[in-house]
Design a protein that fits this description.
The chain is mainly beta and about 100 residues long. It contains 1 helix and 6 strands. It has a 5-stranded mixed β-barrel.
Length: about 100
């Protein structure tokens, strides 16, 4: 069985350098090779996009590796629509971090 991928916010990125994570956020800016997301805790995170990246909607979950500069190298992403409450996402992210055995 593969190792679970933790859900994180910008504050937790430093705990996962070199590891694969999931980060949900609002797309603030998208360029050819990078995007800036507002994480569920309000912090901004730079995403290094893969070639297939397409963020057609306002919210996205990014799966990728955390770099030493706390940016994320995207492996894949999932569109989360245009109506997502990041406060609820942040509450669930914190709950999952405090209770990892429940969410395996």
């Amino acid at each position: 069985m593969d190792k679970p991928t933790p859900c994180v916010n910008s504050t937790k990125l430093g705990d996962y350098v070199g590891q694969t994570v999931r980060l949900t956020g609002k797309v603030l800016k998208k360029q050819t090779e990078t995007a800036i997301l507002e994480s569920s805790d309000g912090g901004q995170v730079e995403i290094h996009l893969n070639r297939e990246s397409d963020y057609p909607e306002q919210y996205v979950e990014v799966i990728g590796r955390v770099n030493e500069d706390l940016s994320i190298m995207e492996y894949s992403s999932i569109s989360m629509g245009n109506d997502l409450d990041l406060k609820i996402v942040n509450s669930v992210t914190d709950l999952m971090a405090r209770n990892p055995d429940i969410f395996v």
